[in-house]
Amino acid sequence: MSGICSYGGYVPRYRLNRMQVYKAMGWMNPGNIANAKGEKAVANFDEDSITMAVAAGLNALNGKNPTVVDGVFLASTTMPYKERLNSGIVATALGLGEEIHTADFSGGLKAGTGALLSAVDAVASGRLNNVVVTAAESRLGKPASPQELIFGDAAAAFMVGNDNVIAEFKGAYSLSYDFTDHYRGKDAIYDRQWEDRWIRDLGFDQFIPQVVNGLLEKLDLKINDFAKIIYDCHYSAARKKLNKMLGIAPEADQSNFQIEIGQSGTAQSLLMLASALETANPGDKILVVSFGSGCDALCFEATENISDHQNAGTISAALADKTELDNYTKYLVWRDILPIDAGLRSEEDVWTRWSALWRSQKMVLGLWGSKCKKCGTLQLPPQKICVNKDCGAVGEMEEYRFADKIGHVASFTGDMLAASTNPPAVYGQVEFEGGGKMMFDFTDCSLDDLETGMAVSMSFRRKFYDEKRGISGYFWKAVPTKEVK
Q: CA geometry: angle at 335 spanning 236 and 324, to 5°?
């Protein structure tokens, strides 16, 4: 049987209280007070859809053998690259091999379930054995717009396969409509939407019942056969109406995390699914509905394996691991909405030599170093000659991955002169358990959080953004483990 073998989620550490945004911009749109409840998850200045997808993917692969993965799918409407396979970057950062199938899914908010359905079909057909499906989003609403308050950043990931399935796929039903609710042209930065009444009354009120009833009829099921029901609709009144219309029991309706995270686009329904799997019991049927240019409805049934499934990257843990972003203007700077003067050093034209990146690709994107086969000495960056003075073996190295290893702070400093959108720039030496030492930036922490000897884990982040060429570069940064749950 094919289905979900593991899952993971990722919610950025920072949360922005929506009332802060309203206090700054409410003068422009007083009606936005209706959207000012709770907080929204905000990606750090060095995070984007690729880095969040990697974080969720690593959580989904936790404890799994990466060599069995032969496919990686990424769904997002905010991919950093229009022409460069974003899922290929994700696959390399996850430490997977080259002989795999990668694909990007975009163009509409139901691309997340579209990617999941494609993975299920590929596995069921036997064409692929295990596929990692990721969905990540960092959408922008124009300042003073409802979308600025409603949207939130997050990611979810699943490993789809045939072995040790924890949620068996039972069937799906799909609708496709060129229904223009949210839209963004090829050069647009900000999301736009048509009237709320249009979206609620024609979109949610008609499409969701149509796709749900279509699935129920196809699988000969009733709505009360489902223990957990997931659908994307951030309008609270519309959700109550739909629950009543469809006969959804309160205990079956799953949280959409609008108060805690915000609407996370292609990741929305998958994030809710990852959360539902945390508390699912064997035999529970789960209904998953996405919305955007139509709808997808998927049915899963939890197996006996779910009782023994251990997962470190849960949504509940991500929700608990948070820090308030107490400055709205910092959010504007991080998203390149508010231009700033980052100093003369920020004007240096540092551009990517793609041939050099190709030669060091596994080290840069996957954080692969080397291990001496004769004496076991570890080295990062990888070397051809063993650095152990008592060994010195030449050409006796094998690849060794540092991305999933724990390191310790050997030294650190805060640099107010370095170009940074989150000064001071904090960096230093990290020494890994078992050997290997290298200079890294520290992230998701302040200078006061650090001390020598403390443990850190590695996190895939955006190293730089080249404004002149419109491209992002990536590398690994160190995060104090006290900030990682």
A: 60
Domain span at 219:
3-334
Element (H, E) at 218: helix 205-219
Q: In what order do the strands lie in the sheet with 397-401?
A: 378-379, 368-372, 397-401
- Position 122: which residue type? A
Distance between the two ends of the chain, CA-based, in angstroms?
32
Question: How many domains are contained in the chain?
Answer: 2
CA gap 291, 266 in Å, rounded: 9
The answer to whether 315 and 7 are in contact (CB under 8 A) is: no
Do 32 and 135 lie in one domain? The reply is yes
- Give alpha helix (H) positions in 247-279: 268-278
Per-residue pLDDT tens over the stretch 52-66: 999 999 999 988 899
Per-residue pLDDT reduced to its tens digit, 283-334: 999 999 999 999 999 999 999 999 988 776 789 999 999 999 989 999 999 9
| Helices (H) then strands (E): counts for the chain | 13, 23
Tokens 């009120």 found at: 205
Q: Are residues 272 and 150 in the same domain?
A: yes
Q: Is the peptide bond before 424 cis (omega within 30 degrees of 0)?
A: yes
- Give the containing element (helix H, strand E) for 372: strand 368-372
CA–CA separation, 65 vs 104, rounded Å? Answer: 23
Question: CB neighbours (10 Å) of residue 224?
Answer: 11
